[in-house]
Amino acid sequence: MGDEDWEAEIIKPHVSSYVPVFEKDKYSSGANGDTFNRTSVSSPEMDNGSSRKDPFLRTGFGSGRSLGNRDVGEFSKRETIPTMGSFGSGKGFGNRGFPNNKFEEGDSSGFWKESNNDCEDNQTWNRGFSKRGSENNDQDEGTQRASGLFGSRRPALSGAGNGDTFQSRSGSGSGRGGYKGLNEEVITGTGKNSWKSEAEGGESGDVQGPKVTYIPPPPPEDEDSIFAHYQTGINFDKYDTILVEVSGHEAPQAILTFEEANLCQTLSNNIAKAGYTKLTPVQKYSIPIILAGRDLMACAQTGSGKTAAFLLPILAHLMRDGITASRFKELQEPECIIVAPTRELINQIYLEARKFSFGTCIRAVVIYGGTQLGHSIRQIVQGCNILCATPGRLMDIIGKEKIGLKQVKYLVLDEADRMLDMGFGPEMKKLISCPGMPSKEQRQTLLFSATFPEEIQRLAGEFLKSNYLFVAVGQVGGACRDVQQSILQVGQYSKREKLVEILRNIGDERTMVFVETKKKADFIATFLCQEKISTTSIHGDREQREREQALGDFRYGKCPVLVATSVAARGLDIENVQHVINFDLPSTIDEYVHRIGRTGRCGNTGRAISFFDPESDNHLAQPLVKVLSDAQQDVPAWLEEIAFSTYVPGFSGSTRGNVFASVDTRKGKSTLNTAGFSSLQAANPVDNDSWD
Ligand SMILES: Nc1ncnc2c1ncn2[C@@H]1O[C@H](COP(=O)(O)OP(=O)(O)OP(=O)(O)O)[C@@H](O)[C@H]1O
């Protein structure tokens, strides 16, 4: 069964059978200057199909090739206002945007079949499922409304596009994709290495859909660009006052300065050129732990330097061991593999690895879905010591025997809770049981995130040596205190107006607006452009080229507003993001913490405003109150009331488990160390198998 069939099966009982009328002759698929048209058809059933009764889905905007709007002619005018950012998905919305279109609020005429997908986007449909090969699934964009771990998964949903013009081009292998789409997909049961390669599944033409040909631009070569960085903020020094807990046996002493780490001269020079003069708490604790060869699970607030916390000691070891890239070998055997859940994030980590290894013989390589497989292979065969990869592309490359795992000494899971949950957990399990992969006793495994639900911590035991150390900087799963959080009660039908009001007040300050679905991301971006607010968008239905273009336009100030789904919630480090607006709240509190963490980074301050709709967000009231109060933010009385009225006894802080694990789930007693930090020693973590 293909992806689309599966989606249809899930949705069928509730959706309208409406198929829009589409005037093909007015459609051309050129990237620029496309003309779109369709005839407006009222579709009252659609309201039944959308369990959210979302006003934004009733106005006829969406992603995919077919654009719906009554002001057809307006679309072709978009080239006339090039100042607007790129948004939209695929051919329907070219990179130049189309600000002149007009649509009317509450107009229910603008449906096409793709609207049905919003039912998929609605969390109620997705609980317990992890849809494989579904690049159009917002669940895969990090919202992960997971109801379990390694839970029920539909096997081998290959997700070939069916060529239906009105369907989103999910799973077409066309290079678009969210967190984990067809091009980042691992499918069991076929192929000599037990997982179906990306080429088999998406790029070689075995399934329908165009070949992915996108080759990302090469990284910068000039030193200034490589070491470009933004300034630490006024609260950087306050990091020192955050309590740090280390649990596990015989933890090495924290270091207080980079000098104490005894790094080689080249590495020290690179650290200085990167503008790092002082360690952040997670670095103070993690660097000596990793240098001592210990496994580590580290949890520290967003934007507090976790990337360097693992990269620097790994590089130090590789330098110490005299590792040099072996060029032009058909089978490369990297010493270090780093995985992260999104393409943009893994690319960012790669650029950091490249920066810190500048002037050394260590070669970092990045590979991710949505790009030409041949390009990934070409990068690897030129030499690869540190392989930065998204999971699907990694497994493809391993399956193609371009990567051997025998030399792996370091395995890093960034956003580790995400990498181990039901979405990526199975892939990660496969990775560690791949032929040649050293056992956990033989390698060093490092898990980093700002959130670590208890159940994920338990699962992580499979990946880590039993004597691993746990570093918790501040409250596990807590929000960054440099972000001023406000929660506004705003109903669905007032959200757009409120958004425009806020953005007009904000002016040109860089702002990320998070919405729940890909379609809504397109819709809101379009709407904002119509309001003359220069906006771009990023989500999993956009082609990789478009995603990177959108991020670039936002990063370099061309578009001060980025509308995003949760695909951009984790890890992205963009200078000067001053505001995050949760137009829609995410379904889990940990996702909220990650989203608002796109601002207030590295000691800078930021603001997060969230629209709370009592119709749909009440389940978040309780965890929100906790996150706000833990971060010493004002808690609105109305939110406390909702939290009280929806009180769940034994509340653990998350809709999917305990995001507020006080610390290490292995438990133990806490002692204060001399630096004023507390150090938690597990009673006997080796013997203590009873983590539950
Ligand atoms: N010691 C330091 N001195 C100055 N800047 C630093 C230092 N450590 C990290 N940074 C900078 O702080 C920013 C945030 O770091 P990083 O992206 O590693 O945060 P993170 O903890 O991984 O965040 P997230 O949880 O969102 O992934 C980056 O721009 C990084 O270069």
Automatic annotation (TrEMBL):
Its EC number is 3.6.4.13. This is RNA helicase. Residues 498-643 form the Helicase C-terminal domain. Keywords: ATP-binding, Helicase, Hydrolase, Meiosis, Nucleotide-binding, RNA-mediated gene silencing. Residues 287-470 form the Helicase ATP-binding domain. Residues 71-80 have a biased composition (Basic and acidic residues). The keyword Nucleus does not apply. Residues 29-49 have a biased composition (Polar residues). Belongs to the DEAD box helicase family. DDX4/VASA subfamily. It is an enzyme of class 3 (hydrolase). The keyword Protease does not apply. The gene is Ddx4. One of its GO terms (cellular component) is chromatoid body. One of its GO terms (molecular function) is nucleic acid binding. It catalyses: ATP + H2O = ADP + phosphate + H(+). Residues 256-284 form the DEAD-box RNA helicase Q domain.
